[in-house]
Amino acid sequence: MVERIWQSMTPIKDVIRRVQSILVILTFCFSGTIVAMTVTPGEVLFKARPTSSKAAAAVAGISEITPLLHVQGHSKPALGGQIYKATLSPTASMPQVLRNLRSRPGILYAQPNHLFHTFQVPNDPRVTDQFHLDLISWPALRAVLPSKEKDVIVGIIDSGIDRDHEDLAAHVWTNSVELAGRPGVDDDRNGYVDDVYGWDFTDAPTLPGQGDYVDPDNDPSDESSHGTQ
Questions:
Q1: CA 229 to chain centre
Q2: Shortest CA distance to 33 belongs to which of 120, 132, 114?
Q3: Which of 130, 167, 173 is nearest to 150 (CA)?
Q4: In this predicted structure, what is the pLDDT of residue 220?
Q5: Which range is least confidently modeled, 5-9, 27-31, 61-65, 89-93?
Q6: 39-71+78-114 in CATH: which number?
Q7: Distance in angstroms (rounded) separating the CA atoms of residues 214 and 216
Q8: Comma-separated ranges of CATH 3.30.70.330 domains in the chain
């Protein structure tokens, strides 16, 4: 009876074999990725448990231990305050040091200091002039963001925008209804007349000075050469 049931399950067995083959292929693919990944020579990263400290990593082969993320403030530790970088001695074996660290009860995990490379080269020849991109970690953020999201409209709150800038001129949103409408008329009936490229909402006539923050108008440009450029 058991043999008949097993024979009747032949199609299921074929499916199982195929799934196993797929799993093996996927395993090899991921294994290849891991093997190809490079690491920083002589460095190991580890995280101590909340009840432990870097002293829990006192194993042979480590010459120096430094916090990877410094603790800020006095009342509450910063996120990642228990993560450390261990520098190995010249004769130390990284696999052995990792095994020793992972065997310690006070260590949550230990791993090599992996190196990740940028797979996308900016096509902007002046990207090095834009220091603010590094300030907001844009290269790292760009690596995980979709690269072809052209339908997303971004609203900018700033003192103004340079619509003629080479990086912005072809990408500034345009109100097609007002562009094809009549001058001086609120064609799209949104309450703003001739808002073709946006709107300057600033209304502060009592502030000293002059420029785009004195009166609201349909020109979002910055008259003082500041803002988004």
A1: 23
A2: 114
A3: 173
A4: 83
A5: 27-31
A6: 3.30.70.330
A7: 7
A8: 39-71+78-114
